[in-house]
Write a structure and sequence with these properties.
alpha+beta, 3-stranded antiparallel sheet, elongated, disordered C terminus
């Protein structure tokens, strides 16, 4: 197995559980990669003839189970079943500085937790928690393919362009007070209409 991958029970412990070519785990299984994350499958699991670190692949902000679709079992069989995923070091990356933002207060200001909640829903998963101190993003899945945060999904906010203010219009000082008031009212209607259009387009 790869040195930075681990499992609970350990590989050696599971070797001692083999019966008729199968391993039956009564209390679930955890597979992880140090500093990348882990997957926990609760309950009773039966597995056979699989190399765990070839079936479960961790990359930064991403996990894939059964990368080869041809050998993926049906939903509910072996590891293609409900599980809790934890991906570590999932922080916002500033587009200008290319640096990770790890400050808890700054992440809250950016709405990073809310962003991850939306991304979780887009994946069809259930958001469980985000621990900003360690960057741990926790969610539940019903079955497996690839889950994680793509580079294109790494922006928590869509910044709206600044609203263009309508320029001030000169008022003819030779007109009467009533004409001046009429000019002002027409400008207010014009600006309100523009504001409504901008709101609809946004």
């Amino acid at each position: 197995s790869k040195p930075d991958y681990f499992s609970l029970p350990t590989i050696n412990e599971m070797k001692g559980m083999v019966k008729d070519g199968r391993v039956v785990l009564e209390d679930g299984l955890t597979i992880g990669r140090s500093s990348y994350g882990s997957v926990f499958w609760p309950g009773k699991i039966e597995i056979k003839d699989i190399v765990l670190d070839e079936i479960v692949i961790f990359r930064h902000k991403e996990v894939t189970v059964y990368p080869n679709e041809e050998i993926k079992p049906e939903v509910g069989v072996e590891l293609n079943r409900p599980a809790e995923v934890t991906l570590e070091r999932v922080w916002y990356v500033d587009k200008k500085t290319k640096q990770e933002v790890r400050d808890v207060v700054k992440l809250a200001e950016l709405g990073w937790r809310e962003h991850l909640e939306r991304q979780t829903a887009r994946m069809g998963a259930e958001f469980k928690d985000y621990r900003a101190e360690s960057g741990a993003w926790v969610f539940k899945v019903e079955h497996f393919s690839k889950y994680g945060l793509l580079d294109d999904d790494d922006e928590p906010m869509d910044i709206a362009p600044p609203v263009q203010q309508a320029p001030l219009q000169p008022v003819d000082m030779n007109t009467s007070a009533r004409d001046v008031n009429n000019q002002v009212q027409r400008k207010k209607v014009h600006v309100s209409t523009d504001a409504q259009i901008r709101e609809v387009r946004f």
